Amino acid sequence: MKHITQAIALNKLVAHPDNPNVMSDATFRKLVRNIERTGLYEPIVVRPHPDEKDHSATADKFQIINGHHRVKALERLGRKEADCVIWDVDDEQTSILLTTLNRLAGSDTLAKKIELLKKLTERMGTAQLAKLLPQTAKQIERLTNLKLSISPIKAQAEQFAIPIVFFVTKQQQEIIENAIETAAGGTRNDKQSKAQRRAVAITEIAGQFMEGEKCRM
Question: Could you tell me which of 26, 64, 150, 174 has the fewest CB atoms within 10 Å of its CB?
Answer without folding.
Answer: 150
